[in-house]
Every structure is written in C-alpha cells, then in structure tokens.
Amino acid sequence: VLTQSPGALSFSPGESATLSCRASQTIVKNYLAWYQQMPGRTPKLLIYGASTRAAGIPDRFSGSGSGTDFTLTINRLEPEDFAVYYCQKYGSSPPHTFGQGTKLE
Amino acid sequence: EMQLVESGGGTAQPGRSLRLSCSVSGFKFDDYFMYWVRQAPGKGLEWVSGVSWNGADPAYADSVKGRFTISRDNAKKSLYLQMNSLRPEDTALYYCAKQLPIEGLGLIDVWGQGTMVTVSA
Q: How far apart are CA B95 and CA B98, in angstroms?
C-alpha cells in the first residue's frame, strides 16, 4: 500500500512544494515513480527510480527517498504545476500500485 | 508518434460482460509489456492488469482477479481486456498503457485517452 499525504496542498506560484509517499513495505531497488495528472488529461511520468527525471521533465521537479519514504519536490511552482500527483510502485512483482494522489492547488 | 486508442466501453448491467480493445501505432508493439489502468470518476488511478510482450504471465489487481482477462494479438497490434461479472465499482475510465523501455515492469510512458465503462442497472 502506498499512502500519499496530505490529500491536498495549497501553494502560490513561485513557492516550493514537497509531496510525500510512504510505502507499507520496502520498495525494492527504489522502484518508485511519480506521475502528474492535469485536469482532463492523461497522467504524465515525471520521476522514476525515485529520483530520475523522465525525458523532457524540467529540473524544477526532483525526487528523493528510499526504502519506504519518498518525496517529490517541485521548486518555483508555475501555474501548470497545479495538478494531481500520484506515486507508483513498479518492478517485477505486480500489482503496480498507485498511491491515492495529492492535489496541488 | 506513438498512439494508443481504446474502444469497447459503454454501459453494462451488473453481472454482464464487456470487452475493451486498444489499437496501437507508432512503435513495435510486440517489444513491450502493456497494461490497463482505470480511474473511477473523480478518483485516483488504479492499476488493473498487465501482460508481457508475448501474452504470457498476465497479472491482475486483486479487485478484478478471476473476472477480467487480459490478452493481446501482436499481429493486429492490439491489446484486450475481457471484463466479466461486472460490478458497479468497475465503473471507470479505462486506460491502455505502454511500458517505458527500461528496467522495472509497470512503469508507463504512453497512455491512451481512455474508454469509459459504466456498470449500472
């Protein structure tokens, strides 16, 4: 089980936001990903391997953590960053569970 | 450009069946694991099922195990999800999704636009 907290966060453009994802068991090889979903859009992969940015993702987005505790940090928030963010456990053993999401508003 | 196009959604009564299809283009389909992910209205993402490049080793979420069957036809570049014994809680937008080509199954880099399934009497 992946638990994202809190369910929603309020910030202003230009600020920095830190989102949390906690796993009920150790995630092997830090196979933890973060996705962004804007309203009415499909999810977009931001981070994989806990800290590797996906292609085309700006360096304002960074991931960290290991074991059971992971963090997504977004610096210098821009208007388009206000979306829902999901963490996901991936790797060789399905199910590849998603967290319940954190809405950045 | 890689594209995934889902079809087959609609409204079904509880206990009935639906078959979703996903037609792909723009990449070598039979090189990749593929997945179905769903999203209930106003809710989060739920990983549903996945299948290897050759159709072997299908995997399912506990919530659909025994009711849903994933399959693929590499010659037709298509992914399928047979959904039987549908329940109201299966109501969701169903996305077809492609594996990112790096180590670590379940990591998704391309999503379809989704097909809506509504289960209601």
A: 10
- Shortest alpha-carbon distance between residue A56 and chain B (Å): 12
The number of residues in chain B equals: 121
| Nearest Cβ partner for A45 among B37, B108, B113 | B108
Contact B104 A29 (CB under 8 A): yes
- Model confidence over B38-60: pLDDT tens digits? 999 999 999 999 999 999 889 99
Q: How confident is the model at residue A12 (pLDDT cuts 50, 70, 90)?
A: very high
Query: Distance of CA B19 to CAs A44, B6, B50, Å?
Result: 26, 11, 15
Is A2 touching B (CB cutoff 8 A)? no
Burial tier of B71 (Cβ tally within 10 Å: 0-12, 13-18, 19+): middle
Q: What is the pLDDT of residues A72-85, one digit of tens each?
A: 999 999 999 999 99
Instruction: With cut-offs at 50, 70 and 90, classify the pLDDT of residue A57.
Output: very high
Across the interface, of B44, B59, B104, the residue whose CB is closest to A95 is B59
